[in-house]
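User: Reviewer 2 asked us to show a designed sequence for the structure in our supplementary figure. I'm pasting the structure tokens here. Could you produce the per-position amino acids so we can include them in the response letter?
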């Protein structure tokens, strides 16, 4: 897959199938040859930094647990519960 980045966008595909305006060469870096993601990968659970790592603070002295988003409550603002990396 072709990925190009300039100062305003990141485009995916040739011709471009996706144009990401929020990511560009001033605020992100393209990393090539990343190994397959973990089998339990979810948005915001991992980051890639010379290897897959949990994407939560490591310097605040807290212990975190991963809480998956409960999509059955997504349309009920009164039922919202924290999800993602949540302090224990």
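Assistant: Here is a per-position design you can include in the supplement:
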């Amino acid at each position: 897959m072709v990925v190009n980045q300039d100062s305003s966008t990141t485009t995916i595909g040739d011709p471009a199938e996706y144009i990401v305006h929020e990511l560009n060469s001033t605020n992100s870096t393209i990393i090539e040859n990343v190994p397959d993601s973990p089998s339990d990968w979810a948005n915001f659970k991992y980051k890639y930094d010379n290897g897959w790592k949990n994407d939560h603070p490591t310097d605040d002295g807290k212990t975190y647990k991963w809480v998956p988003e409960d999509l059955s409550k997504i349309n009920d603002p009164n039922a919202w519960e924290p999800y993602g990396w949540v302090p224990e």
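For the response letter, you might also mention the following. The chain has no helices and seven strands. The CA atoms of residues 3 and 12 lie 5 Å apart.
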